[in-house]
Amino acid sequence: NMPEINVTPLGAGQDVGRSCILVSIGGKNIMLDCGMHMGYNDDRRFPDFSYITQNGRLTDFLDCVIISHFHLDHCGALPYMSEMVGYDGPIYMTHPTKAICPILLEDFRKITVDKKGETNFFTSQMIKDCMKKVVPLNLHQTVQVDDELEIKAYYAGHVLGAAMVHIKVGSESVVYTVSVNKYAKSHISAWIDKCRPDILISESTYATTIRDSKRCRERDFLKKVHETIERGGKVLIPVFALGRAQELCILLETFWERMNLKAPIYFSTGLTEKANHYYKLFITWTNQKIRKTFVQRNMFEFKHIKAFDRSYADNPGPMVVFATPGMLHAGQSLQIFKKWAGNEKNMVIMPGYCVQGTIGHKILNGQRKLEMEGRATLDVKLQVEYMSFSAHADAKGIMQLIRMAEPRNMLLVHGEAVKMEFLKGKIEQEFSIDCYMPANGETATVTTNPSVPVDISLNLLKREMALGGPLPDPKKPRTMHGTLIMKENSLKLVSSEQALKELGLNEHQLRFTCRVQLQDPHSDPDTLHRIYTHLKSVLKGYTIQHLPDGTVMVESIVIKVSSSAEDTNAKVLLLSWSYQGGEYFFTALCIVKRLMYQ
Amino acid sequence: SGQESAVLSPAKKLRLSKPSKSAALHVDLCKASSSTDALQYLLTFSRKPVEAESVEGVVRILLEHYYKETDSSVRLKIASLLGLLSKTPGFSPDCIVDDAINTLSSEKSHQVLAQLLDSLLVIGSQLPESPAVRLRLIEVAYKNLSDSSFGVRTKCLQLLGCLGLLEAPLGKDTAMRDVQSIISDYFGDQDPRVRTAALKAMLQLHERGMKIHQIIYDQACRLLSDDYEQVRSAAVQMVWVLSQLYPESIVPIPSSNEEIRLVDDAFGKISHMVSDGSWMVRVQAAKTLGSMLQVSPHFLEQTLDKKLMSDLRRKRTAHERAKELFASGEFSSGRKWADDAPKEKLDTNTVNLIASGACGAFVHGLEDEMFEVRNAAVEALCQLARSSPSFAEKCLDFLVDMFNDEIEEVRLQSIHVLRQISTHITLREDQLDTVLAVLEDSSRDIREALHELLCFTNVSTKECIQLALLELLKNLNKYPTDRSSVWKCLKFLGSRHPTLVLPLVPELLSTHPYFDTPEPDMDDPAYIAVLVLVFNAATSCPTMPALFSDHTFRHYAYLRDSLSHLVPPLRLPGRKQVYGLDSVDCGSGSGSVESAQLFLQQSLNRVSTIQNLEAAGAPELLDLTIRDLQRLGELQTELAGAADFCATFLRCQLLLMKALQEKLWNISVPLILKQNITVTAAAQQVLDESYKLEFLYSGLENRQVATIHHVRLQAKALQLILAARTRHGLDSLISSCEKFLQDVESFQRLFLTELPHLQDSFVEKLLELLPRLSSCKPVEQVKILQTTLRQSGLLQLRLPEQIHRATATIIEPTGESDNPLRFTSGLVVALDIDATLEHVQDPQNSVKVQVLYPDGQSHVIHPKPADFRKPGPNRHRLITQVYLSHTAWTEPSQIEVRLLLAYSSSCSSRLGWTDAMDSLHPAEGTVEGTIPFSKHVKVFIMPKPARR
Description:
The structure holds two protein chains of two kinds. Chain A is of the alpha/beta class.
């Protein structure tokens, strides 16, 4: 019965969103991520926790929960699980995730409860209570959850605080990565030890994508902004509060600095300010460039970017404004858009995808006349640009990670089944390892072949080393003799004498005797002497003795000759050997036999 | 341990050596009551140097104590001292080799053992000439290679790498295996540190000239996938070395029947390492790629391969899209929704996800998260592109992309790289557009590098020229200080693309076929920029001047005069040549340089006919020649340095000649006071000029330096004679005579090899007379000197290949500004200084800024090393701020700023500087001084009344 690791996705199995994966390893149960699904408004938005237990609290069934990063599809169901279903165990996440997570959860709650009027949803207090259960992680810090289970976080990319987790019980281990290095410059930005886990669990959203260099896209973006500013136009960039907004801010801030530009850049207030504050705090979690400039100043202490005030929109002259929300469907970004839409000098840059029905989607599809509330129409004269920044970790990034970690098995989650299929094929082909892609509720089982540690006594080791030449050649295995003692879950290899002593046993000699019948006309002593001289001549380098009591000793083998009373020619050859001497015995026997049959 | 020493003591040889140091140490060590005490003594002892002659004694005392010592930390210290002591200069450690090796046999501690081996390595490298010692040490290394401690094994491998015999001992000892195969056994060691050491040892063997066997290649390749980064990094180096040794060998591709060249295989493997997990390895791999020039073009081009896909459909890269847009005639778009939409469906089998081999190595390298890797990749790209024009063409897009890197170093590096490969390439319009966008960068270094690049860039269309001009004018407007750099850039742009500029001329000069247009402002830097472009294009486009309007011709004449380095001579129809100068310049080609060179040589030959310094007519001839040379230097810029050098040298000779010719030497002392002053001044001037000759010109050979020193010696002799005549006192005379003789001796020592060339010279005669000179009285010495000096001949000057005069031009401040710099007296004001330096060696140490205050005070300021940039070969740029401060200042007045070249000549400087460093006093005869080598620039400064 080999040990197994079971992985069961409760969400994100051959699906995108609602990440929640159960892992049971070495008798421990771990939940990786606890996310929500953006596409549903009913029960389906949260993972099905009844899979774990029908009634009662989850605490008894889970040893810990680990959250990889702050995106809602990875942490959105956390208060529901811990407060409403019931879980009191530890929840692990990195420091930045712990800081930003509650902001997003609160925002999510507000939209669901205050705007959509849902009841039976988690409350602000629940978010707070939930966050109290969080244990923060540092990068590369090994945290002992209990005596056997340990986890270690690695840097996973440029979503602030995103982490890969290495989970280890005994010699079995699992690595979970979300590879969300969305804003990474390269395919490699996440780094992990060559830890050779039993399973590497990875997201595969962009399994069928290999993306272009980020530099080209950035350059295009900056060029467009710059040109508009130069001809005195205003630029509106609708964004969502977290992640990309900060990325673009830094990009513009640096560009302004580099090009010595003077036009003001504004950032709409509210949620973003709070988020910027956290980015400011967790500077060490950001990329090399930001870290490097930090020596001089904090990159998030923007020099050129100021907070936006409603009245600024009417100011003359060029300016750049970041405003929420990102799809121009409501709020400040829409208000500004209405004001600026009529001037062909202005520009709006949509940095992300827009859902159908939003104004963002309409203008991107070239609509130049928009119907607003109250039958008013809006002529869109300003330029509309689309800037694709959706550069997620692509197939290459995942392959890179596999190369780095060298897992024994691969498991894909958080992606569409068709795309996973492709990546699965590639992984199996390139690395010849098994790749799994369980659906929700389906369990993937991997049998492990854990190495069993054995303590070896130093004396024995030294003795064996002394026997076999200078240093053991690391390329060649060598056999050694010893006694394996299994005692209270520990294994020990000691010399047989010590084993006897430890176990309080007496040593027993085990001797085997073999009778060989043969015909020989000579007298007994003559026969024995013949045997003796022959063995002496054949077996050089062995100790062969003719003892006065009428026996011949070859090493530990005793040879005796006796003849039966009836037939003096019929001789019986007695060979006796201890079990250690077995290897010599057959040699001796063959020689003697050959001699007799000559 | 007492027993041990008793056993070993017969082996020790007793030698008597000076007891001083060793005795003291012995006493100290005997006094030591505990190991800690002993360690303390040793630590204090190791801080002081030991004289070479007492090293051996000290070592013996140490070893004696070593055997007695039970504490391993003390033994460790002693072991390390063995190594330190054997490095003592002047000490040959062969006498302690045996004893040092003997210590190994009884040592139990692995740490001490490792340290002993380390010391043996030091001893071994001190004795490179002794094969017997080497053999013994190698034997020791072999013996200890099987030690169980990684430290010992590492040291053994190091020893083998540094001392291993290059030729295997032939049949002498079959048990002694080939050193390479022994080291390669440890490629598979269980400890990564030992594996690294083994690779390093092998590399060391290679560096020492041993040919590494090809079998190592496979083993090294296997180590490329080691778990530890230091092993992988060393393995990359190893693979590279082998690829350079056996580039054309054929190796099989695993799991196929195909075979490829070894260098291609290695290139592929190292390319793979560009996406390694450790950035150190990535840097190493990227750097290494650059030096693999023998790689097949097919493999090379794969490094730039990138296939994009989206949802399994092929996607065009931004580069491809830009190229297509350019081909279709549409420029700058991206306004369309989803113009990067995926195209055809891909066959899943052909998609290569993990970059195998060289595939996309540079694409990864250039997009790496760490700028160190990106920089290394850019550098490698440059090296490869320089040797392959087709590759240069292909990597253009990638390099241009790097102009927008987020780290300035990378941007700068890629601009430099593009300049270096620019002979191979022509920029497309869209590429040029990206390049030009960088002109607005606020970093001056970036802009200047870009100007430099534009000077060498080829463009394809007239729109490109227009675009470049437009952007450069924008640049000029935004950063007016870039003026000269922008002008220079346009000069080259014009002369490179005359046919592209031609159709633009009417528009550029805003001429109109029927109407007269208003005359542009001649002082407008932008207008000058346009004119520079046009005039330079006109040199090789004779039809262009027909398009000029009248004022253009006038402006030409003006600019030709005021900015002659930017505006070339033009043959203008129906116009007289404005300058006679032009006629010389017009024909300026290689022919005229040759003729000028000939003229220079002839002048020198003519001068060399002068027999000695008293020959009749010699001063006139010298005078004439000096004038000729000065003029030549002005006309032929290529020879300016040489001509100037010769002229200065001849002027020295002339001055000496005049000084000696004076009748004064026959007149009695009281009457000659006046002449004396002129002669003293002349001697001083010759001395000063001689320093200028030595330090202001680059490209001098030892022979010229000898000649210069000779002149200096003559001047010193003259000074001595003058001093003797004024008779200040016998004591001072004696000391000056002695000093002079020392100078002569040091001259002899320094220029021993040059003495044969100095026949019939002052110094040769002097050396002949040296025995007499050093024995006679000072007064007599002076007399001898006087006659020798007067009789000695003129030294013939032989010109070196290339000789350049160091020059400095202060660009900023211009000295033209009427706006005074305001400051509060007593406080500090910063003055920006921008200067170009040409042909200055080691400017960080030699160039100083001098500020002269109106009251005659002067300050010398040393700019920071970081203030110097190197925009081109033999050219430096100094951009710095000097802080001015003065307490008593009430009226606005001018200060003067100039640059100085500092020099320091010491007799020992050419012998090796270590000796000079050791002695506490600067070597005698050191002369330190400064040579002003730029014009004065005046800055108007106005004090503000101090606030109360």
